[in-house]
Amino acid sequence: MCGMAEDELTRVAVESVCTGPDKLYVDCTFGSGGQSSQLLAQLSDKGRVVAFDVDPGSVAKGRQLEGNDRRFQIFQKHFGDLGQVVNEPIAGVLLDLGPSPLQLQDETLGNPLDLRLSIEEGAPACEWLSRTTVLELSGVLQSFDALHDPLLSDRIAAALLQRKEDQLSYTSVSSIAEILALLRPDFAEEHPNLNVQRLTRAMRVFLNKEVPQLEQVLQTAFERLDMHGRCVVVTRHAWELAVVRQFLRGHEEPDAEAARDLSSARLAELYPLLGSEGQQKDYAVRQVSRSIKPSNEDLSEEKDWMLHVLEKVPRDRSMRLASDVGQDRSNLALDASPPSPPPLLPMHVNTIGDLLSRAAALPQEDLDAEKDELSRSIAARKAHLKELGCALSQQKKDPEILGLVKRLRALYCLGEKYQEKVQERCRNRCHVSVLLEESVEETIALGPDKLYIDCTFGRGGHSKLLLSKLSCGGRLKAFDVDQDAVQVGRGIEATDSRFEIFHRPFGELGVAVTEPVAGILLDLGVSSPQLDENSRGFSVKSRKNGPLDLRMNQQVGEPAWKWLETVSAPQLAEVIRSTCYRLEEPLPERIAEAILQRQLERGPYTSTAQLVGLLDEIGESLEVEHPNLRLAHIVFCSIRVYLNREIEQLGQVLEAAFEVLEPFGRCVIICFTRWERAAVRRFLREHEEPCAALAAQFGASPERLAKLYPLLTSGHKTGDFALRQASQARPSEAELKRNQRAKSVAYVLEKVPRCQPSNWRKPNARHWAEALDHSADLRQQNAFLGNQIVACNVALTEAGRSSCWQQSLSLLAWLQLRNCRLRPTVITFNSAITALGSEALKAFSLLPEMRKLAVRPDATTCGALAAAGARSALWAETLGLIHNLRSQGSEP
């Protein structure tokens, strides 16, 4: 991956697109004019540049350049209109996506809330927010990189649109920031980078129709481009990257090897260009070089760009697409007799996986002889290059030497001495538990005398530390399906009566443990001993070649190599797709076809090296668009997760943990992959309560609140308990240096009493009095604990509905007592003022109380007071009150 500073981006983009000085080029995103100016500097008098932009400031700057240079012309149009403006052949197209620096500095885009790139087209964001729906806004937030958390997106969208029902509008970006600040307790731990900029960016993309505009300009650009003309695209966000990659996948051709044995119908599915619509095109698209990203030190949310160089190339018409005679593996997957093993491959094969698969067939003497021959060939090639004047650095990059060295390393890994050395090193290496101290401390938060569960015993790192911190009365139970791990646990069990281990999956926690538990620990993924043991097949490293098994418990189920003989390409693609988020369509289908095609030709995968070798080859072909893609690791992980039912097991253990945990007990989950984090977040969303701000906002719409918080209507077995995220932990830099496998995040979920007991959530009016009586009981018991005041706010709201303003004043007075551990907020006072109804004088008297507690009135306060004054016909007092509030900075 090539690293560079942001200021070099323009130079690299211009150099990549310019293929000659006498041609026509198009700058689709003029912006501040940097790219157009540099491009003009490289052109002759015959060369020309046409630019597009809809922003008035950018167009004005372009008009100045247009007046000074006759070779330049700018149009105030969307770049999607390229086909309507330019009808002649083009040599190159430049696309630098996202807003320009001029637009980012323009305060009118966000104050008032506008977000249009062209203020002459469409409706501003503030107007769109007044008429959109929760479903549409939530979809916008999820689609354009703002948030990949469906339920949380729904909640934020609902909170934003609640202002519409309150007859309030969004006047600026700061008004969105206020709502987001109220909701921050819901997402602060899991989404620390979620901010107003990300929300407004998603709205900007939607309002300006940037996705269809980008799709249209890519299609038009390649229709207008000369053959071998280039389109350089700079993407800055994931949605832009997805559109560019999807366009590339839809316009690329397969190589002859990939197309050889597939039917025309299947090829058309994997390569849309070969379909009926694509057959009409006389060109294909290929990536010229590796995509360029900024170096790590330059990486930030504004600088996280990626530069793509796409080239228009002629179609390969010599390819035989009529390969319908090829076998259809959809039926082959059900064939009981697997193909016979293939003969040994010749010595010149250049696949590491195939070289390693010959380990059992070649004696050590033959391996040593071939290594000596390769060493002599490398030395001879270096001597020849030296005679030609090549420096040592040039010799190392020579393709022939690189191929020879690759084969030599593969053979070296097959040596008996090397294999013994690796095994000895793995046996002597201790398993290093991740986030050891942090996770154990969070797990035993309720004290040393309780029962705790280690759901992933492994080699006992967490369990041993847990036992050292427990008292004589404390107990620890552990789970593991790995036979070797259970044997280690039996040793601890024999010496410590407080410990017990179960040889069963942690998904059976609810069956094995029925008594209350104070804390539960899950360290997901594969342990180091499993990775280091060749016979398990978990590692993708060539030096750890072994049978392709991938089972946690080798006594249950079938190994991966046998499963691959029975699976179809669509099924395998779905397995890969289920845990891999980096591969766009139809890459999972293509990878699955390649895996099964190799199996059809050469027989079952008898070793991990065979599958790794194939996946490395596929990964190299994707390296251009996916730098540093560890495809073998991704596919191995997907197959392992499927065979061991890890997604299902995680869901079962989380559900069981929520049931068996004591009140305020904690469940610590250490996650290593994105699918694990997504599963934990989804479970948390389904079992958490609304924050005080959101519950008060939706007091008039309990049905909507129930949709946003499923726990309110789920009738869960845990009754009056919910989950909250107590904290989140990540490994320190020092731990990452000590242990390369420590890249993880730990979620700490705590079981807490529900602030709103279940019988409070009945929206029917006949239960309001019951709810108010219940609030009185809770006040007497001082049951409103913690920093959640949502129950009080809802009680005040219900008091207003039932015209019980006396109860609302009583509850508010109790909140102001010194021995009460809750502090009224502006929402609390607003609810109380609303509950007072026509008792305007009593409502006005609450303002001094707000000042005493340093609670500042907001627009809702002004509205509630004005309504109370109007109902009591206190016109003069109401106008005077509004004047005083305005003088204090509270704008009605």
Automatic annotation (TrEMBL):
UniProt keyword annotations, A-Z: Methyltransferase, S-adenosyl-L-methionine, Transferase
Name used for this protein in its record: Uncharacterized protein
Pfam hit, one: Methyltransf_5
InterPro entries for this protein: RsmH, SAM-dep_MeTrfase_MraW_recog, SAM-dependent_MTases_sf, TPR-like_helical_dom_sf
GO cellular component: cytoplasm
Family assignment from sequence similarity: Belongs to the methyltransferase superfamily. RsmH family.
PANTHER family registered for this protein in UniProt: 12S RRNA N4-METHYLCYTIDINE METHYLTRANSFERASE (PTHR11265:SF0), S-ADENOSYL-METHYLTRANSFERASE MRAW (PTHR11265)
SUPFAM superfamilies with a match to the protein in the record: Putative methyltransferase TM0872, insert domain, S-adenosyl-L-methionine-dependent methyltransferases
Molecular function GO labels: rRNA (cytosine-N4-)-methyltransferase activity
One GO biological process term: rRNA base methylation
Species assigned in the record: Polarella glacialis
